[in-house]
Design a protein that fits this description.
Blueprint (H helix, E strand, L loop, with lengths): L3 H16 L8 H12 L12 E5 L7 H4 L5 E5 L4 H8 L6 E4 L15 E5 L8 H9 L7 E5 L9 H17 L4 H28 L17 H13 L8 H10 L2 E6 L7 E6 L3
Length: about 280
């Protein structure tokens, strides 16, 4: 059952994706790079012809736009008002079917999907593992599933984790504010924190250095629009959970996935698993 925080998060993301629809033509290159960051190891070649899959928590459809042309049918699922944004953005993709539903209550037949993915969603719900198990139950045995959850920064230096703790306190305050205040605060953070640190990482890279451990280095090739959107996502969402790689792998196994592997680069943690055949 959805909690009050869950309902608030759904409302927040509906408003967030209405504000940042990611439909600007000049952002196409960044969107493709964003897609590649997550899907570069996805086994497209192993999917059956006219594969049927699900984008769980599709938001604006910014990922579905690259997936839909590769498959036979794609269920685009989201419980928020963002689904209307996705429906408009994907109007030229006749194989997209839009479903208003939460991850733990998808009206999709069990063991019917050839693949599914859920990126940046389940760390924002109260029943993460229950929702993961529900999604996996919709997969055929052997079908691939791509999952992204916020990481617990266990692969970062101590000073990096301390810096994150310092930012988490104001995040908790901002996340409880009215939406317009969340929006204004996040845009200020994007301008004063995300942009300078991302550009510093880019300068380090261009000078021949390794930007890996610099905060927000993942954004060094991203447009400011992405930073504004993600700052609202990061600082404006009331429910936020973080997982170590080991915790995430164990949860995936308990949910019925096997042959689990992780991307070795940001965004952390992105993992690929396959529904057990037993």
């Amino acid at each position: 059952m959805a909690t009050a925080d869950d309902r608030e998060v759904i409302d927040h993301f509906g408003r967030e994706w209405q504000t940042f629809s990611h439909r600007e033509p000049e952002g196409e290159e960044n969107l493709k790079r964003f897609f590649d960051d997550y899907f570069h190891r996805f086994p497209w070649q192993d999917l059956p012809p006219n594969a049927v899959g699900a984008d769980v928590g599709c938001g604006t459809g910014r990922v579905a736009r690259f997936v839909a042309p590769r498959v036979g049918k794609l269920f685009c699922c989201d419980p928020s008002a963002a689904l209307d944004v996705a429906r408009s953005a994907l109007a030229d993709e006749p194989n997209c079917v839009f479903i208003s539903a939460t991850a733990d209550n998808l009206p999709i037949d069990p063991a019917s999907l050839d693949f599914a993915y859920c990126l940046g969603v389940l760390h924002h719900v109260s029943n993460t593992e229950e929702s993961l198990h529900a999604i996996v139950s919709k997969l055929r045995p052997g079908a691939p599933f791509l999952l992204y959850l916020y990481y617990a920064l266990e692969n970062r230096p101590a000073w990096y984790r301390m810096l994150w703790r310092l930012t988490d306190a104001p995040r908790r305050v901002v996340a409880r504010a009215p939406f317009m205040l969340r929006l204004a605060s996040s845009q200020l953070i994007a301008a004063l924190v995300y942009w300078p640190l991302a550009r510093l990482a880019l300068l380090v890279e261009k000078a021949g250095g390794n930007p890996h451990n610099l905060p927000l280095a993942w954004y060094r090739h991203k447009r400011f629009y992405f930073m504004r959107s993600d700052a609202l996502d990061r600082f404006g969402t009331r429910v936020e959970k973080r997982y170590t790689r080991a915790q995430m792998e164990e949860m995936m196994r308990r949910s019925g996935l096997e042959r689990i592997s992780f991307n070795e680069h940001a965004p952390y943690w992105t993992a690929l698993g396959f529904r057990t055949r037993a």
